[in-house]
Amino acid sequence: MVIVSTASRYAIITGFVTSIDGSSVVLSSDHSLSTTEKNEHFDVDRLESMGTHAMSLASVASFMSDDVERTKLRRLVIDLDEPHFDKIPKSMVEKVSSLIKGLNKEQARAVVRSLVAKDYALIQGLPGAGKSTTLSCVIRCFLKLGQTVLVTSHTHSAVDNLFEKFMNDVPEEDLLRIGNMYAVKEKLAHLTIEAKLVKIKEDRFHAMKQILNSVKVVGATCLSVNSHPLFSFRRFDVCLVDEASLAVESSLLSALSVCSKFVLVGDAKQLAPLVQSREAKELGMGISLFEKLQKNTTALTSLNSQYRMNEKVAGFSSTLFYSGTLVCANESIAKECIKINSTEKPLSRIYSPELEHSVVFMDTHSESSPESQMSSQKGSSATYNNFEATQINQICNKFVRLGINPVDIGVVCTYRRQVDVIRDILDEKYVEVNTVDQFQGRDKSIIIWSLVWTNSDSRCELLHDERRVNVALTRAKHKLILVGCHSSMQLVSPIMCSLLKLIPSSDVVSIDSI
Ligand SMILES: Nc1ncnc2c1ncn2[C@@H]1O[C@H](COP(=O)(O)OP(=O)(O)OP(=O)(O)O)[C@@H](O)[C@H]1O
């Protein structure tokens, strides 16, 4: 595989060498070189692979090209030039007001700022505050104003989730989902080019060109923008990036380069881009473009009213991470609790349906149960706690006996290995067990957080990570049960210590008492 550049534009195409002789090199590529000058000098570099890193590198190289669009983009994302906004014209208000109607004030403001942005807008969505609801409205408004939209994110599932929110409100012929029919959700498979072409019997090449030229909303992962031919001949009015705080900056550059302006949606207090190299992290690769651009506060609107957690559950994250700004959208969300069928009184606080006891800690440390210690085999990926898993199984069984549907219970694990240990032990197979990272963007009525760690002498990276702690704390709608060793948690990290201070001692339930 090779990558082709000119003196002024890097990484114009990637392709394969099909033949070489003394005077020529023949390449095959799905992108055209027709936009380059005649007799231009081409540099052909060998590319070892087209994996994620190579694609990101190609994206950075192309971003450095000497053209008007990329020069403007570099001023925004490297020099951090202040973005500009227009005033909202009356004609625009008339066109979009019916679409904005169902939104709350913050959401409506975020939509309007996105529409009038000349360069970019940022939407910070606190947990459960309606990021996807807002973004899907932004997309419909742009369409109503006759603009074309590229919808992107770092994973297929994030793009699919957003598409699902608005696809029924947009004519099918205006939508294209880029990606293999089998990589995208079944519900969206009919929007891929493969599926659209199945119906066409004659001159498919012409039909494909027509589809690619006419679609108004295109959904693609940010890395696939590097390799899909559509982006070599079409630009879009706006690029919308969902979960932007999770994407490595370089992976977004190609998508931003083919659009006139962009809207990033995310939350810098939730998970950051996953960067394994410590050196790269120290050099800033773990800082997302979303977080970096927040320096320009004029670009930022924040969605603080959330529709997920009751006031007790939300209060923890609000106090620890958002200086009290994360609030419940209305009174019924604020007061909602689990509903159970029990005549048993008093019920242990673990199972209590009272709002007051929505967040409890089950302390597994016990002199009479030395088996409560975790096990660790070489590195954190193999850290688990069998005793804690057994306790969690009992908690789930009891909730189900009390009338809770198992699909409304989730077990969030600090460690990947603990997910397998709990899944093996669990009697209720419809209880979902997953890592904190897998639960981002999702919720359950009851969340049981398996903390695992019972060691106070060594460092536990995962429980030092404030963003990961925030995600774990904001998945429960009505009841959050932390299961672990209370004394170890007080020492494991400053954030866990601050968290425990918010749980009254009466809501710390000892294993010996149940
Ligand atoms: N303005 C609104 N009025 C009523 N309900 C709303 C409003 N906005 C969002 N919701 C509801 O809040 C819930 C969360 O919305 P949504 O899925 O858009 O949130 P999100 O911010 O994308 O979630 P996450 O934090 O998980 O990423 C949904 O059930 C949605 O219907």
Which tags fit this structure?
514 residues; alpha/beta; Rossmann fold; 3 domains; six-stranded parallel β-sheet; 19% strand; globular; binds adenosine-5'-triphosphate; DNA2/NAM7_AAA_11
Report on the architecture of this protein:
Its EC number is 3.1.-.-, 3.6.4.12. Pfam families: AAA_11, AAA_12. One of its GO terms (cellular component) is chromosome. Residues 286-486 form the DNA2/NAM7 helicase-like C-terminal domain. By secondary structure, this protein is α/β, with parallel strands linked by helices. It folds into three domains: 2-48; 90-303, Rossmann fold, CATH 3.40.50.300; 311-513, 3-Layer(aba) Sandwich (Rossmann fold). 36% of the residues lie in helices and 19% in strands. The strands form five sheets. Strands 7-8-6-9-10-5-11 form a seven-stranded parallel sheet, with helices on both faces. A six-stranded parallel sheet has the order 18-17-19-20-14-21, sandwiched between helices. Strands 3-2-1-4 form a four-stranded antiparallel sheet, with no helix packed on it. Strand 15 and strand 16 form a beta hairpin. The longest helix has 16 residues, at 386-401. It is globular, with a radius of gyration of 26 Å. The model has no long low-confidence stretch (mean pLDDT 89). Bound molecules: adenosine-5'-triphosphate (ATP). Residues 102-104, 107, 125, 127-133, 307, 441 line the site of adenosine-5'-triphosphate.
